Amino acid sequence: MNALLFRIEQSDTGNQPTSGTSLKVQLHLCGEWQLGHTPDGESLYADIPAECKSITLITDELKHWDSSLAVVLLQLARWCEQKQITLDASNTPETLQQLLNLATAIPVYQPGPNTDKMSWLAQRQKTITALGDSFARTLTFIGDVSLAFIHWVQGNAKTRRQDIFFFIDQVGPRALAIVTLIALLVGMILAYLGSVQLRQLGAQVYVADLVAIGMVREMGALMTAVIMAGRTGAAYAAQLGTMQVNEEIDALKTMGISAMEFLVLPRLLALVFIMPLLCIYADVIGIFGGALVAVSMDVSFSQYILQTQGAVDLMDIMSGLIKSVFFGILIAIAGCQAGIECGRNSDAVGMAATNAVVRAIVYLVVADAAFNILYDKLGI
User: 242: Cβ–Cβ under 8 A, 6 or more apart, which residues?
Assistant: First the structure.
């Protein structure tokens, strides 16, 4: 089949075609070169003499062809480049020449002797630089939000009151269902975990202490924050990201309206106002979930409530509420920053929502650990 598709003719400027250093080869392409009926590039240049210095492509007898011909000729061009042979494709169809020029415009990548080591060092440097840039952008964003909050306290911010109430309704009452479900299950889980050991000692009534302290000091604030990070933080990122794609934020800047005051601050204030209320609600629901388990352990409901009152004091409640306020700030910062820094396409909006959730959860875990260490040092 190859003989019907191409043939090789040798010519030389001297009298000895096979011994001179200026041996030229004419490669005649014949017949139809279409997908499934073309030879590979190796068979195309297998019979070309080693003394060849120039190859000219002749397509006078070429009939129908498709991109498979371009693929084979690209292999020939790479082989000629390795052998330092000149390939003349000026007699081929113009469209084929364009394909070859496009494919050979960028040379084949040749790794250097220290490429692996240098690429590893470059990758580490790039990672460190990216982390530094991200940290700097976060500090800048926090500074801008702080200035916007100061302007709002002074009454000079372009923050509308109706926007704050709108986002309070969005992040508060509409989140009650999922907060109720998670808090109830967390309270029951804590009660079941404690009952395994306390039942062996006949101290089932102390399940109330375990559930109350666990919910009020830790799980109520943390689980509510995780829920809001996945629900509200991602929503903030998607909303602001879509506005970034539609160039609405650029329009606000053109009109002299601060995006921090008009878009970010209402969302942050809504979370700061709502998070303590949701935290208290989650504490109550979690304690009630523990009561459901305690009743099945021969602990009366009145005993459970009395034991809970004795186990929890005002300082425990305030420690959880302080956490919830800071958690709300961190969720708003993570979500709004991801939205403001979103790219200009639909894929970037999805990535912004994902980054918002990941950042918020990391912030929450780190902040929660810092609060626990601080409470321990202060004896709270």
Answer: 349
If we measure between CA atoms, which residue out of 338, 138, 163 comes closest to residue 237?
338
Specify whether the CB–CB gap between 298 and 194 falls below 8 A: no
The residue count of the chain comes to 380
CB 188, CB 290: distance < 8 Å: yes
C-alpha distances (whole Å) from 125 to each of 120, 121, 131, 224, 359 are: 9, 6, 10, 38, 22
Beta bridge mates, 10: 25
Instruction: Answer with the residue of higher pLDDT: 27 or 337.
Output: 337
Distance of alpha carbon 354 from alpha carbon 238, whole angstroms: 9
| Residue 312 to residue 307: CA distance in whole angstroms | 9
Compare 107 and 317 and report the one with higher pLDDT. 317
Rounded CA-CA distance 356/346 in Å is 16
Q: Is the dihedral of CA 167, 169, 174, 180 positive or negative?
A: positive
DSSP string, 95-164: HHHHHHHHHTSSPPP---TTHHHHHHHHHHHHHHHHHHHHHHHHHHHHHHHHHHHHHHHHT-S---HHHH
Residue 16 and residue 149: Cα distance in Å, rounded?
A: 89
pLDDT at residue 117 greater than cutoff 80:
no
Q: Residue 278 CA to chain centroid, in angstroms?
A: 28
Sheet holding 52-58, edge to edge: 6-11, 23-29, 52-58, 86-88
Going by C-alpha positions, the residue among 285, 280, 376, 360 that lies closest to residue 321 is 280
Q: Quick check: 187 and 208 in contact, CB under 8 A?
A: no
Q: How far is CA 159 from CA 7, 12, 142, 169, in A?
A: 79, 84, 17, 17
> By three-state DSSP, how is residue 58 classified?
strand
Phi, psi torsion values for 33, nearest 5 degrees: -110, 95
pTM: 0.67
